[in-house]
Design a protein that fits this description.
The chain starts with a helix and ends with a helix. Helix 10 links the parallel strand 7 and strand 8. By secondary structure, it is α/β, with parallel strands linked by helices. It has eleven helices and ten strands. The strands form two sheets. The chain has a five-stranded mixed β-sheet. It has a five-stranded mixed β-sheet with strand order 6-10-9-7-8, with helices on both faces.
Length: 363
């Protein structure tokens, strides 16, 4: 009995005093009520894919905000940095004429110099003319001599101290050093503020959430006023990738925008999809859209696929029609465990089903 009591005491000694469960480190789980990007990747590369996805999404987000996209806007290079890039034939002729005139002037100057010297004879040289020609050099020599004399006198009076000219140079350099120090301090403060903002998860615009399935990544977007929607960012990324064929990621396969998330039930889905229907499928419109519903499920086999598809199709008003062969817009429905993710995409088939790897492959 004594040994059993001692073991109990030891176990109690190592327990936490507040008796609260320890928080696990890692990303937050995926829950309903978020919007962002649903990404499929290579199995076992979820961490690398999430880091790449945040960088890719953030870069295209900045391009949409700043409007500086050289890939999509060809008119960006209409105003080059250098004002004069190419030279026409007429300008070349003007340049050649200027060079020829410049050569003639030099020849005339040379002839004049020879005439001045020849007037005085070979042995006799006019000192006034030499002084007038080299007046700048004579003045410089005189100034250098006076400066040396003043420096020697100063050294004799100060007893071998540094000359006053050097002191003034160091005094003039001190304010420049102070300005550089202030600039470095301001830059350090900006970097510290940026690091604090990145460390605060509440201020991050894009953050990784754990969907709980292998080969899947979800990037949450905390949208602010004036920010483009996940649909706009994904559409811009796919069109840019299709136009440039530039390799963007090693692990990302498919990148789909998610604008609504809810629990996977017919009532919740019909209620959550209303804002998307009002935005993309209005009742009063002159251009009715052809649409299709794309359904996918991961780690959830308890739902009826056709019931979910029919629920979404019935929520679209009458002017718009279903077209599975050539839809203009596609409603993406991805069920992951107990979360239903819904988004709207355009040109789904034309853009390789939003697969970055296929869009950027050269084969």
């Amino acid at each position: 009995m004594a040994s059993g009591d001692q073991s109990k005491k030891r176990k109690q000694h190592y327990r936490p005093q507040n008796q609260r469960p320890v928080k696990k480190k890692g990303s937050y789980p995926l829950k309903p009520g978020v919007q962002g990007f649903f990404i499929s990747c290579d199995g076992g590369r979820e961490y690398q894919a999430s880091q790449e996805a945040i960088n890719v999404i953030d870069s295209f987000f900045e391009e949409l905000i700043q409007g500086t996209d050289s890939k999509v806007n060809p008119g960006l290079f209409d105003n080059p940095i250098n004002k004069k890039v190419t030279f026409s034939y007429s300008e070349d002729e003007d340049d050649e004429e200027d060079e020829s005139n410049y050569g003639e002037e030099e020849e005339n100057k040379g002839d004049g110099d020879k005439a001045v010297v020849s007037e005085g004879g070979n042995d006799q040289v006019n000192e006034k003319e030499i002084a007038s020609e080299g007046s700048c050099e004579v003045k410089k020599l005189a100034e250098n001599e006076t400066e040396k004399e003043e420096e020697d006198k100063g050294n004799q009076k100060n007893g071998g101290d540094e000359p006053p000219r050097k002191k003034t140079c160091t005094e003039e350099a001190n304010p420049l050093a102070k300005v550089n120090e202030n600039a470095e301090k301001s830059i350090d403060k900006l970097i510290e503020a940026e690091l604090k903002e990145l460390g605060d998860k509440s201020k991050r615009r894009f953050m990784k959430l754990d969907p709980g399935c292998n080969g899947l990544v979800f990037i949450q977007m905390k949208r602010r006023d004036g920010d483009p929607s996940p649909k706009d960012i994904a559409q811009h990324a796919m069109t840019s990738a299709a136009a440039t064929k530039k390799h963007m990621s090693r692990f990302i396969l498919r990148l789909l925008p998610i604008e609504v998330s809810c629990y996977p039930s017919e009532e919740e889905i019909s209620r959550a999809i209303k804002p998307l229907v009002e935005q993309y499928f209005p009742i009063e419109t002159e251009n009715p859209r052809k649409f299709a519903v794309l359904y996918g499920a991961r780690a959830n086999t308890g739902l009826d696929r056709m019931k979910i598809i029919n629920t979404i199709a019935k929520s679209i008003p009458a002017p718009h029609k279903v077209d599975l062969s050539n839809p203009e817009m596609s409603i993406v429905v991805e069920v992951v465990k107990t979360v239903c993710l819904i988004g709207v995409v355009e040109k789904y088939k034309e853009l390789a089903k939003y697969n970055l790897r296929q869009l950027t492959s050269t084969n």
